[in-house]
Amino acid sequence: MAKERSAPSATRNYPQIGLHGRIVHAIGRRIVNGEIAPGERLPSPASLQAGRGVVREAIKVLAAKGLVVSRPKTGTRVRPRSAWSLLDPDVFAWRQEGLPRGAFVRSLTEVRLIIEPASAARAARRASLAQVESLRRALRDMRDALDASPADYDAYNEADFNFHRAIVDSCNNDVLEQMSAVVSASLVVAFEAAVTVPGLARASLPRHQAILDAIRRRQPGRAQAAMRRLVANTGRSIQRLPGNR
Asked: Which overall architecture, per CATH, does domain 18-83 show?
């Protein structure tokens, strides 16, 4: 039997261990899914079955994510959505949970189409030999995972994740690397959905190869176009799944 692997950890989510962590996630989800609307006050500690100190610390975490603000006399209220840190890993995850699957997939594909083709073009200009070798290894690992009996889709997702992250790293842009949290979160969600599409993983291998070849040959335009085809095709395939339309 193929060795099982956990999905790649794309984001550094706030721990859910203990009452404090559970309160952070419980309130955060309620805010992001609209149960607690902008301008409304947060539930009292008593209604959350938690002490004031625990809730106070949870509010600090939520405030850092742009979800709430505390002021004298008015208390702690939910901020407008425009103030939320939408690229924060937890906010991103809570938003995913609150959206209909099809709507989230469309938003996810839009984000990927904005960021990843441009990253591939930049990587074609800047990738070092060592970074190109990282892409080769990731693609080799993707093939090996699919050739296992049975196919190891966890290993495939991990290798696919490594391939796309290696492209971002190959851009050699510190700011882009700091922005890669949303890309990473997007990739994990996309990959988990993509492997449920029959044949999609195997069919994606030539598309990944085309991206690698364009980066290796220093062809930014081809790299950008190949990445756009890969992301768009994946998005369309996931969108056609039952429940995603």
From this structure: Orthogonal Bundle (1.10)
